[in-house]
């Protein structure tokens, strides 16, 4: 099930008076049953945690000017901004991560526990992170989720105003250590009358709260220019204290600082030493293309990191990359598109354009979606670890025939290759993996034993009969305990002459589940 499909059914058709071109619209029609408006604390100009002093009122997020007004019958507009969330004491203006939402739920049922396990297994297999999550460790995580997840899923649904499917998918972040790599160049502070900085702070708050929902460790934050570091960041208060110590100034050494501040000390070094506890998800947020360094510094840093971790006991799956844009700089958008289309790294990363552009493109998806900022942040958090949140196929369908048009045929080119020109990200369903099943679908839905069509220890789905592309974008051959799908190529963790996988020693057989 693709991203648009997951949320389209939960949204009412946006009323005519919520045109995408109308200034002041928060960014989308609410999910069914939502009775409140956007949190006041997250409106631009009303975010006390983003700095030590109250900020001057700024213009609200405006929808992308090229976006057509979604069609739909007349309906009520948003209630007043101070309307409380339903079902909880959180009240208006509660920051992300604050108490509120639905009351705690009871322990998960056996069917829910099986669903949690299969949900996580799907990500473990897709991202090749079996070495981090052997059966006994996964079982411990699932049992922890059994006690906490039902209430926390409800809380996410209320606080982020997302449907249950998306709230459940956020559970996948518990498999990863999340690092936010943040652009703190001068343009963030001064361009667009400070709106870029407000958007940036809001993103950090949402990611910190969501990622900490199922993992109490919080996230790490590193800045491109400033030496300030944040670890164990869990909520808006933590974000506010951190950002208040950072002065936004300087250029955009995107690739150089990525390697020096994030990749070497937090990923490559620990991987070489055998000290990585979880695979790492690096989320980069920037408003511009690199400045003060060669344009290929970012791709070189990514290629270097993936090659290095592939030589360790953890394999290539030890690191995932997400890039996202704030602000409306067209050069930044073009730069991220060039990363997505780079034949060396395009299959290794996911890119999300700024909210306004994504909102426009998702309105053309099949089925169409009226994107909110919280749903955009869900795409940002999950796009690099869940292929269903990479919307190229759905955007292409919308462009080809508009809403309701039949989906296009399979994309041309090798599996995992670069997307079509001008599009972010790679396909929703990566070759080699089936689309995620619908929740509640017989045999492959939530709570069904087969989950995602296969279990640990079974051979993975084949990549449309084609061999993986060479280089550091190469997929591992076999699944958990499965033989290599290509007899002349090494399987998961095997040596192939050149150092990779578990070199210089032979990896143990992957565990069966």
From TrEMBL:
Start and end residues of each stretch annotated as Disordered: 1-109, 392-513
Biased composition (Gly residues): 90-100, 418-429
Residue spans of biased composition, Low complexity class: 28-70, 438-447, 457-473
InterPro entries noted in UniProt: VWF_A (IPR002035), vWFA_dom_sf (IPR036465)
SUPFAM superfamilies: vWA-like
PROSITE patterns (UniProt xref): VWFA
Name of the protein: VWFA domain-containing protein
